[in-house]
Amino acid sequence: MSTSPAPHAATPEAVNTSAAPAPVGPYNQAVRAGNLLFCSGQIALDPGTGAMVGAGDVEAETRQVLANLQAVLAAAGATPRQVVRTTVFLVDLADFAAVNALYAEVFGSGVAPARACVQVAALPKGGRVEIDCIALLAD
């Protein structure tokens, strides 16, 4: 009995844009592998200055996080409608309702992505919210 060789996996490709904050470590803003896009977590960094936005205001931070994430998606030719999975990290789950309302403005139409939301002890740069995602790209 002979078997065919396994299909060759797609070579991962880095996706980075100046419209979102530069990575603060050894990672990319996103990696495309085949028709999947894996976006690194975004916090409320201003892409132009690298400074945190919002001064602890979770709504202001969330708006910036979502703008950063959308910039990374756009750099890969994607939109929020192509996102199939997100993870929301909150320093305080009491912020869930405020974050969820803004999240719904971006991801609430059409088929909303699958999602996990977890409380964490801390986030980089003292942020209150971080969001990452996986998107399905066109072939």
How would you describe what is shown here?
This protein is of the alpha+beta class and 139 residues long. It has one domain (26-136): 2-Layer Sandwich (60s Ribosomal Protein L30, Chain: A), CATH 3.30.1330.40. The protein contains two helices and six strands, in the order βββαβαββ. The protein has helices at residues 58-75, 96-107; strands at residues 13-15, 30-33, 36-42, 83-90, 114-119, 129-136. A six-stranded mixed beta sheet has the order 1-2-3-6-4-5, covered by helices on one side. Helix 1 (58-75) packs parallel to helix 2 (96-107). The radius of gyration is 16 Å and the shape is globular. It starts with 12 loop residues before the first strand and ends with a strand.
